[in-house]
Structures are given as structure tokens and as C-alpha cells.
Here is the input.
Amino acid sequence: MRSCARPSVPLAPKGGAALSTTASIPHAHPSGTDFRLLLPAVSAWVVTAALLGLETRYTALVLATAGAAALAAVLLLVRPGVLRRQGAGVTLAAVLLTGAAAAIATPLHTADLHRGPLPELARAAEHTVPRSPDAPARAVEVELTIAGDPEVRTSRGGTTGGQPLLTVDALADRVTLLPDGPATRTRTPVTVLVRGADGEAWQRMLPSQRLSVEVEVQPAGEGHDTESAALLVVHGPPLQLAPPSLPQRIAGRLRAGLRTATDGLPPDARGLLPGLTVGDTSRLPDDLEDAFRATDLVHLVAVSGANLAIVLGALLGAPGQAGTPERRGLAPVLGLPLRTCALLGTGLTLAFVTVCRPEPSVLRAAGTGLIGMLALATGRPRQAVPALAGAVLVLILLDPFLARSFGFLLSVLATAGLLVLGPHWAEALRARRWPHHLAGAVAATAAAQALCAPVTVVLSGHISLVGIPCNLLAEPAVAPATLLGFGVLALHPFLPALARLLAVPAGVPAGWLALVARRGAELPGGQLSWPGGWFGTVTVAVAVLAVCWVAPLLLPRHTAPGIRAPARPRRRAVRALVTGALLVVLLAVLLRPPQLSRIATGWPPPGWRLAMCDVGQGDMLALAAGAPDSAVVIDAGPDPNAADRCLRDLGITTVPLLLLTHFHADHVEGVPGVLRGRKVGAVEGTTLDEPPGEAARVASWAAGAGVPLLRAGRGERRSIGTELAWDVVWPVPGSDIEAPGANNASVALMVTLTGGLRMALLGDLEPPAQSALSGRLGRVDVLKVAHHGSAHQDWGLTGALRPRLALISCGEGNAYGHPSPKTVDRLRALGAAVLRTDLAGDIAVTGDSPATLGVSVHPQPGHAAHRPRARATADSAAPTRPGQAPGAPRAPPG
Here is the structure.
């Protein structure tokens, strides 16, 4: 989740979701702001976003509609007197024309995603049963051009946890089917995936470099945006066909020089300064990035348009004075005329985009800045809002994928808040006797945050209560760190010793930013969990409006001595009453008392005993532990926000035990969400610390929360009261030899309820470990199917267990093909009702005896099918016919 990207106005000092200096806020009255380009820009944006995912068979209809809209616009404009009056007719014509332009440009830009051999191979792979690891892959030789910087991360899930993965965007221009297929020319945007040690050769790749490589074609899948037609999994080393272009070689050398010059700085400054300067976050510590995210300072760890604003501001001064005799910056000192300044500013902008890479916020700032340069060169007046709207319009038409970019949206919203709301709020604060500069700073910060908050909550699932003060503390250090960082960048190729010397003072403001982030993240109550999706967006917007409405009551306007302020007690009372009511409703929505939540949603169902949480491609279960707000949690899934959401929906505030079956990321990355705001008695894990990186993260989280970390072993028996008891049936001593691997080290449990209901929870056990348990467990009523319902099951064990209800936790559209249709079919053949979180959402088992066994589901937003909540009675827990359980979502046919 990104925070609000730092906004900027052309040639302005740095501003942002954090804030800008008061010079960044225009002092002209907003009443003179020109909004004529706003609706055309919004029209192009909306049309483009709507058409990006459209299937190609509708292209002819879209183009015909665009032609009709353009014709209607021309007919409007040729009417007598329309252009002279410049009223609603001209505005409507402009909206129709820009919408038509977007409708034509979008299919043209996205056509390469659907034509050629690679999209066909990706579509074929999407409907193919996943091959076994030993089966040979169909190889394709691809010639491609690198289009972005390689990104390295560590795989934290599945059987390859801990393996380094490298991804890079590229453009495939020639495809050959091996061994002797035809070669096809194409221009297909793709994502390249390199696993393990093979990624070392790719880390030095630069944009524009041409390569030939042998790959396996897979669908782009979830996690790869709509800009990629296929995922190319590399087999073997690449062969260079052409080196990078000269500008990219220079940019790569500058970026590498900045990293080298900062090698002697403390770890936080060493990782932050390259990120702040050119967007290179390869050395940023994970915990520091988490701190920046928690304090809404994450916009500082990646380059944005504000960096360009600082550099151009140093050259040309503030935007309002760039073309006047009072202009500041280096240009008047050097005696440069306006057109020369505009030419230099244009060159600097293009160089900035090349070195810092065309990130969405960088493109937005570059487009706005280039429009400002054009106005400066022609001597025309410069207005920030039309420049912003014009830049958005041009960029959307040139790169339609920006229409669905959160980074681009946040950058535009933050800049709009700075330009439109900032002046109003700054003047309002000054009228209440706030210091001039403080009023400007607070207004800029609050305005950007107000417009960005409804979007950032979708990405982060929380609102930072320390965001504004942390941004205020950070702002004085941002410009010095950025300018000194660019100084180091420019000096290193020529004077490396001097660059290393300059890096020392540059590390001081960078260190201050890291200190603010870390201390802010440590403050108790600094983050407020918030629902995601449209519901979260609407509630944040309502909360922002309520705060804006009540602010005048808390900050009364100062009146001059002898002047009596008008008395409006009734209006104030109504405003206070309505605002208070809104805040009470919002608190109820956010805190969600279990009683109120159950009345509103019917979830959790009365008498629930086990809940399987829909956390995506991962595992998380909760066992009711007597008290309504208490549960034993088994695994935590891959996402802290999803884990926190599930427990909040269940009303769980106390967790006597958090048991982690094994340390793969899809089972443990959600641990911070379980710990968030809850009393946790202990964390218990398996005996094998594999992968070691994830095991270390779990130990760190437990230590940070002051929770003991225990180890589970076979023979351990625990109970909570008389209602819940469980036995650890796996792992056993020496199991790593009998059944090696992290999955086979999963803690397996046999759970017994007071009424005799038996449940087997098998973690991610593979067939060797499952086989070792065969004949030891007896029959069960409920089975948590091992390893997300994969095809690798020991059917001797499953047949002996013979469950009435089989639960599978898996993510919708996951790349592993879980659950296997074969597994689902065989479970049904054994007489089990099969429920899956990817189709049903959260699943709750009710009843504590075989006679009272029931099940309820709680669909989550985002599923392909939204089904009403269903209940199954004790008698209906067995299927009425093979393949379907009453009250349960139906699995797709095998």
C-alpha cells in the first residue's frame, strides 16, 4: 500500500501528501482559477479506465460510438454563436471530443495485448491443468527489449519459500516456438520472471537492452497489471543482442554511482537517500519501509513529481515569479533569459524522467512542468490547475494504462488538493491568527491528505493518526536531502571522492526522515484500522466531510477588537449535533461491537465452533474458545489486513494461542494483523525453521509484541475449559527424514468438541507425512484439506478419515490451480460436502456434535460470485446427491 504521492505544481518547491512549503500554495484567490479543462480531462480518464479491460470483440462498437460522439461535438461547435459565448455547449463539445479521443486511443494502445503468439499461448496455459514439477515445459525462444528496471524480491510461499525472484517489464518483438517452429514478429508487452541464482545476470539489465532468451509462457495472472499480456518464466541464461541506448547507459551509471557514494552512510540513510533522489529502494530496510507506511511518509521512499519540482524550483524559483522581474533561483543569478530557462527546464525534465524512470507521479509532474515551460517560453500566463488538467489529458491519451494506476491517481489528487483546497484553508487559518508559514504548511498537508485518504485506505486498510504531524516534522528535511542527493548523483562520475564527501551531509536530513518515521510508527494508537473497498472509501469521505464541517467550531475565527462577531447559535448547534451523530455512526462502523455487527450482518452465526477465514491464497482458522471474544487462531494467512478483518468480523479480541503450522509466508505473513490490538497469550510454531527468513520474522513479531514463542510436538494435548481440546498428531521426532520439507513439518491437529464433534486440521502436509498418519486418527466429521486442496493427497488417509464436511482454503484465481478438480471430485465421491473460501468467502462450522453439525458462509467483496449467506442443518450436512452439499456453494465441474 502506497501513501499519497507527493504533489507538485510546476516549478514549485517540494510539496506532497505530506505538505509543501508555503511557497507552494498559490496566493492568488481561487475565485480566478480556470476549471475549463477539468471536465474534458475527467471525461478522457473515465472513458479510458472503462475501456481498458474491454474484450476485443467490442472494438468496432467502441470506435463507432467514438465517431458518433466526435460528430456530435462538431455539430455543437458549428452552431452559430457557440464558440463566441463559450458556455455549456463548448464544454459539452470538449467533453465529447476528449471522450471520443480516449475511446479511439485506448483500443489502439492495448491491441498488442491481444494479438500475436504470446497472448494465445498465455490463454492456452490458463486453461491447462498445472503440470507437475518434473514434467517438461513447452519452450519458446523470445527476443525482447527491456522496458524497466529489474525488481528483486523473495518468494515467501509454497514449496519454494525463501527463493529469490526477479521480475522485469519487457517488450517481446520476435517469438519462435521450439524446437523448430516458425518465427513471428510482434510487439507484445510482457513480464519476465527469473528464479533463483539465474536472476544475478538480470540484475544488471538496463531499459532498452535487447536480449534473446528461452522461456515458458504463462498467463499474467493476479498480481501482474493489465499492461502485461503474458508472464515469461525464464529457463537458462540470456543472450545479449544489443546493448542499452546511450541515455540509459548514462542513467544507469548515475544511479550506480549514487549507490556507491552512499555506501559509507548508516543503514537507514544508505537505503533512503537513493530512494528519495532517484527512486532506487533496493537497499531500503524492510522495517524502515514499514515505518514509512505506518506514518503516511511512504511517498518519501520513492521518487515522485515533487523531486522534479524541487530541482526546477532551484533553477527557476517559485511558479508565480518565474516570468517576473522578482524571479528567484539560479536563472537570474546567471542572467539567463526566459526562453533559455524554458529550454533548460525542458531538458532537465526529460533527463529527470530518464534517470528516475517514468513512474506515474513522475510523468504527471513532467507533463505539468513541460506545459509550464511552454507557457514560460511563449510569455503566456501560467495557471496551475489548467496545466494539471492538460497534463492529465495528454498523459491519459498517450498512456491509457495510467487511468488505472493508483500512483497516478494519488499524485493528481494530492496536487489538486494543494492547488484548490490549500489556498482556502491557508487563508482560513491565517484569519484565526495562525502564523503565516505554519498555516500554509498545515493547509497543504491537510488538503492533500483529505483528497487522498479515500484512495489510500483501499490500499493500506488503515488510517494513520500521526500522518500529518510526521509530515510536518519531515518537510524541512525533504528539500535539502533531495538537492544534496542530486548533487552526489551529478558529481560521482567526475569527482567520486567529492561525491562521497557530499553524501555525508546529505545523509543527515535523510537520517532525520528515518528517525521521524521510526518514532512515529512506535507511537501507540498511531494507526486506525479501517474497512477496505468501496465501503471504506465512502466512510473515509464522510469522515473527512464531517471533520471539515466541524473544524470552524473548534477553530473560531478571530475578530478585531471592537467588532462583534455575528451570533449564530442555532446554526452552530445544528452543525455540532449532526457532526456528533455522524461521528457516533462512524465509530460504530469502525469499532464494530460484536453485538451490533451480528445484528447488521448475521455474522458470525450463533454457536460457531470453527471459522475458516477467506485470506486469499493461504490458511487461517479460528477455534471458538469459550468466551464470545476469544478464539484459538491457527495460521494467519498472507495478509495482515485480511487476518485482522476476519477476526474483527468474528468479534475476537483475545487469542489464547496463535498456532502456526509452518513458516511459509501464506501461513505467517498475516501475524501482525492477528497481534494488532489483541491480547495474545502465546505463539506456537513447528519444529523446523524453514524458510529461515520467515521463521525469523515470526520470532521478531512475537518478541516485539512481548509474546512467548513455543514449539509444538506430537503428543502435546491442550484444552480450553470443557468445550475445546486438541491433540498434536504431527510432526514426530525424525519426521524431517521420513517426510522432508517445510510442508511436511506442518503441525497437524485432531480437535475434539464437548459434544463429540471431531475435526482434523492437516496444515500443508504432503503425501509422505499424510501416509505416516494413516490408520492413527479414526473417522472425523470435519476435514481441513491439506495444502489448499492440491492434487498431492494420500487417499488412504482421506478414505480412513471419511469426513462429512471438507474445507479448502485457497485464493480466487490463484496461479497454483488450487484446489485440484481431481481432489474435489474424490472428496465428493467419499460423501463429503466441499466448501472453498475462493467461492464461499469465510466459512463457519456450527454445532458441537455430529447431530448438530452445520455450516454458514460469509461472502467477501471481490469474489466472482456473490452468494447469499446459507445455512446447512445437521441432517443436510451430508450431500443429497453426489457432488453437491445443500446450503453450500457448488464447486465448478471437474
